[in-house]
Amino acid sequence: MAASAAPDSAVQRIVIENCAIATVDAHDTEYASGHIVVAGNRIEFIGAGKAPENLENVVRRIDGTGHLVTPGLVNTHHHFYQWITRGLATDHNLFNWLVALYPTWARIDEQMTYTAAQGSLAAMAKGGVTTAMDHHYVFPKGSGDLSGSIIRAASEMGVRFTLARGSMDRSEKDGGLPPDHAVETLEGALADTEATVKKFHDASFDSMTQVAVAPCSPFSVSTELLKQGAELARRLGVRMHTHGSETVEEEKFCHELFGMGPTDYFESTGWLGEDVWMAHSVHMNDSDIAAFARTKTGVAHCPSSNARLAAGIARVPDMLAAGVPVGLGVDGTASNESGELHTELRNALLINRLNPVHRERALGARQALRLGTYGGAQVLGRADNIGSLEVGKCADLVLWNLSTFLHSSIADPVTALVFGAAAPVTASFVNGKQIVENNRLLFADEDAIAVSTREEAQRLARIAQA
């Protein structure tokens, strides 16, 4: 029997039928041929077979034959502004890549940031992302309202969004990597972060915009900014995000500067806890993983970026076995030029199988899908309202077309989605509102974005070379 919420005859309904469904709920419930009824912005019915008869105010019926419906993908780590610096420093490790690109990034302004956000959001939305996040930490002096421009782009695209308001106060003169004019003062960073939270953060169940406190990394942030940032986040009741344990160079840096490894350093500054998630977490020993599991600190796994920068292979199977919340991240498009999260399902599975310990048993197709959906919702602190297809949850869902020759000979739809080529998105819904139709964005002009992002990339290159 179909699960259902209390029906409301006044609300408008969308009925999707004849589709395979992977709910990614606690029991990994799946239907070979089932239905979903969306009422307003919530899932009202879901189950096998046809939808209930005599539903009122049905404004649309979708025949999902040949499709798999899953929860919308949840991105847990990104840097939108990097869309206009793609294809540079392609043979560098993280440190050399940062040194090469920071002088260019230090020249971004509001228009560049807005346009780059459009490009990053468009790539994700076309690939099934319904909840995006951006860790923006570069705020050059006089660059305008960067946070506001990013949030505006996400709102226009129609995606659910978390802005991780980043910051840096350790520049080259202090032994950090960013140029001096690209960082903020401790006081300025904290004040602007607090103002951004108070202006934009919405803590409601079906919130479309949330804000996290997100100092950048040990390379670019003072200990005091980490400590006071944690205090600020907990006073305001918002989540915390930063980069951690990405490379062996970071491990060495932390030991030399702080006398301890990254995990111990973060714990000493208040940066472990169920309200915290770290990007990357590649170089984690057993003690580090145990600390994350004990504190329920989350991880944003970014397999393509980690490979692009030769950072290493994160111990995702060990983290999951220990109970660490893990989601997937695109990471910045200067270290993952595709900018798509749906390809990370496949890459997470394949790259983790290169780990000599777990090999072919590292991850399966359904584990990879869970990382990209429910795992991401856990990491963002939103598992009660998104990340799985369940009655009463927000109607964030994707219809993947598996009827083309690229997938049609693979019997299992979840295997087809994860192991196969990137599947076309026939429809994507966020909060019950459709944002993609037949692989085209409904609320953005893709051709115009192609022109504007190219122009802004060229403008930034000219400014950086001047």
UniProtKB/TrEMBL annotation:
Residue stretches making up the Amidohydrolase-related domain: 68-434
A Pfam family assignment: Amidohydro_1
CDD domains: ATZ_TRZ_like
Xref: InterPro entries: Amidohydro-rel, Metal-dep_hydrolase_composite, Metal_Hydrolase, Metallo-dep_hydrolases
Keywords (A to Z) from UniProt: Hydrolase, Metal-binding, Zinc
Named cofactor requirement(s): Zn(2+)
Record bears the keyword Metal-binding: yes
UniProt-recorded name of the protein: 8-oxoguanine deaminase
Lineage per the UniProt record: Bacteria, Bacillati, Actinomycetota, Actinomycetes, Kitasatosporales
